[in-house]
Amino acid sequence: MQKSYFVEKKMILLTGEYDGYGTLCTRVVTGGVSFLVDQTPLQLLDDNLVYIGYDLRGAMSSAKNILGERVGCPIIINPYLGICLFPNKSPYKSDCIWFNPEHIVRTKAIGAKTEIELSNGHSIIVDTRLTSFNNKILQAKQLMQITVKGVSQPEPILFYFDPSRKQPLSKENQGKFNFSNLEDHQK
Questions:
Q1: Which end of the chain is more exposed for a tag (fewer CB within 10 A), N or C?
Q2: Which secondary-structure segment (H or E) carries 147?
Q3: pTM score > 0.85 for this model?
Q4: 63 sits in which H/E element
Q5: 113-118 β-sheet, strand order
Q6: What is the residue-averaged pLDDT of the chain?
Q7: Which residues on neighbouring strands pair with residue 76, listed in sequence order?
Q8: Residue with more model confidence, 26 or 163
Q9: Could you report the per-residue pLDDT of 121-141, keeping only the tens digit for each?
């Protein structure tokens, strides 16, 4: 069992699982392996967000603000790596599964349930209707698109410096720097 886990792009899903002592831990599936982490799923997600300067409460609030009030909103777990996760049910339930939409290959209805084919060749069946599950995938992709679009710059901003116009910045008699020289030369 690991003490902690930093969510990576290759992480497929995570869910709550009780260990042999009845303690809620997190089962992480990444690539072809799975392992337990000695934290609840919400603790693990919050620790990941705190590590990069955010928190779970803020990520959930932000997602609801961007997408509108929805139950079980996706969250951006790492905007720098472009990782978004979404829950298949209330994130406060111990058996909630957090999916990385990048690793969902195909979904299909199995009665009132959904079979999800994963990028590692395995599949999982969840107690969620196909349309509801597919809507969650779309919401996650929409959140990523809006968030990434909101923070990305289409073209770099360039500043040009003309060395022939440089004037030294110095303290004037009143003790202030002559920053007004910069204003005069910007025109």
A1: C
A2: helix 130-151
A3: no
A4: helix 56-67
A5: 104-110, 113-118, 123-126
A6: 86
A7: 84
A8: 26
A9: 999 999 999 999 999 999 999
Cα distances from 2 to residues 30, 35, 51, 113, 132, in angstroms, run 14, 8, 17, 32, 33
C-alpha pair distances (Å), 170 with each of 41, 161, 167, 174, 176:
57, 19, 9, 11, 8
Number of continuous H segments (helices) and E segments (strands) in the chain:
4, 9
| DSSP annotation string for 21-34 | TS-EEEEEEETTEE
Tokens of 146: 């809006």
Which strand (E) or helix (H) includes residue 15? strand 11-18
Q: Is the pLDDT of residue 77 over 90?
A: yes
User: What is the pLDDT, as a whole number, of residue 148?
Assistant: 74
Contact 22, 127 (CB under 8 A): no
Collapsing DSSP to helix, strand or coil, 9 comes out as coil
